[in-house]
Amino acid sequence: MTRHIIITALCFIATAFTALASAPVERVDTLLFSPKASAIAISRYRTNTTIAVSNVDGSADNFYYQTGSSTRVRSDERSKINYTDITNVLIAETDTKRLLVQFTTDKNHNVEYTYDLPDPDNRYVKTFLGDKSSDFGIQLGVNLGKSGGTRWDLVSGGWGAGWVGTLDCDPSMDASMWKSDEFTWAVVLGVRMTHGPHSLTAGLGIDWRNYVTTGDRYLHKDEEGRITLMPYEEGSSRHRSRIQTFSLQIPVLYGISFGGRRNFQFLAGPVLNFNTGGNIKTQYRLGSNDYSIKTRRIHQKPVTVDMMAEIKYKSVGIYVRYAPMEVLKSSTGLGFKSISTGIMLGL
Question: Which positions ≥6 away from 272 have C-beta within 8 Å?
Fold first, then answer.
């Protein structure tokens, strides 16, 4: 009798192993795995599922996921799930058309949710990792991968507009900071390394600056390349004379995130400028005629170094930029430095 029971059990086990071996293995496409996060929020609708994971890996980045076949949902078809201080977060899609969510709570409980993907052949999927405001185009980023606790991103951002003033200049230049302006794209294309709250960003950008004089003298370049201030013609009006510079720039900025959910960030570092263009433009009215005179090859310094700092909340910040080197060559006879400040988006 005992022998018969043992043989029956062995046959049952063999049959089970054979069934498992012949069953197809479910493959998963991992969308996110994070050792820790400050919170997860899941909203489940009949045709739509959205997930938000805050402060992925303890950083300022958030993960967003949305899938469905329709964006029109009814509130009575919704369920919500919220947890804080979670670890071992896994979000994946399986080849059997399911969405898998796993994590461990702060009380060391393992939690798992599995959702069927509605209408998998006619659905949209959107995922995003970063600051939520970046999802609306303020900041562009492409994840290049992780190595240990360090993350690498290909980034573009830092659209800035502000005012620029002159320092250590000839008083007769009478430059107006409120009428002088700066436009910059700090990083057209660059790389950012992030490790916890710390980051280092470097890339290639562009910058325009206009130094405007509003007094009774205009900027004039003579045949020897010297730039002087000359009086406008008697009877003229609507005076405006400015120096414009254009630069290719390479910023190298260290950043540290702080505050609640690390939404605040401070960045600072040097900016190397290759000043490839410069000109003088003078405008005025005489009688019923308007005049505009542009002079090129003003002999700006080819290479300068600035210092830049920014304090920002999410993707909106205020920057200050100090240029300790003179803008023009000493041969022009017009020496001045500059400082600028303004608003910057997305760096």
Answer: 249, 250, 251, 252, 303, 305
